[in-house]
Amino acid sequence: MSHQPNPDRRMLTVRTVAELRAALAPARGGGLSIGLVPTMGALHEGHLSLIARARAQCDLVVVSLFVNPTQFEEPSDLERYPRQRERDARLAAGAGADVLFVPSGEEVYPPGFATAVEVLGVTDLLEGAARGAKHFGGVATVVTKLLCMAMPDVAFFGQKDAQQLVVIRRLVADLNLPVRIETCPTVRDPDGLAMSSRNALLSPDQRARALALPAALDAAARCAAAGESSVPALLRVARETMLDAGVEPDYVALVDPDTFEPCEALLRPCLLALAARIGEVRLIDNAMLAPPVSPSRVSHDRRPLPTKVIA
Ligand code: AMP
Fold it and tell me: What's the pLDDT score for residue 250?
């Protein structure tokens, strides 16, 4: 079966788990691979890159659209969250989705629903601390449910939500879920702002100030490339870049990309993660920082040392 987007491909929209399973049964029975791209809708190029990656790797691509109420700690944030169902369906189909799964709240959380998936440790840090325990609890539970509903071979997630990815990788490993988790790079607007459904809620002035986030990542990356390995110094550069642009960071942290534990020095690649509220809109971003490769650390060169060093 071709993995290429097919303009004639008809996307099927389903609303219940029974319909989803019925739609996937022939492919599963035929040994075809199934890819799942979970989203909350208001699709942008970031989401579409995940769908395109799924299209390139899998025989059948499922995109889910569900604004998960249990991961919103503020009712106003849930209410404001952009919803654009018809546009989303058009974009998902154009990017190569075969099945669009749009469950209702009752389908995901029927009366009597009483189970939660809780990932310990990493969920207490950064986004977990800032947004409250409810956030990652809601994410972990809904992602587990979506994986059980669609039973994909591969599920695709964005690096933009780096801590969410750590939580998902943890629960997939801990619960022995038979799915491969694929990370896709962050897609940015031409000026560097990471695409986010929430960007639509920014005024033009707020959007201009939001550029403080990628600017802070760039400034710290330049510092790291110039040889700075002190964590306080790197964090100061990022923080001051944001403050200079009139943005108060929620947090700026240099962490291990696999655990989100703080790094003590930039002696290996580490993730710089940051968050800030611009007006009512909370934005996050991250980038890998790496120490420069110094000549003394390029140790694969097996040529003999110059005589004067040996002597
Ligand atoms: P959301 O609809 O915000 O829950 O996001 C659905 C998926 O899209 C998640 O795996 C996100 O990490 C991913 N995503 C969101 N924004 C971007 C982006 N700018 N680039 C790549 N992936 C993204």
Answer: 98
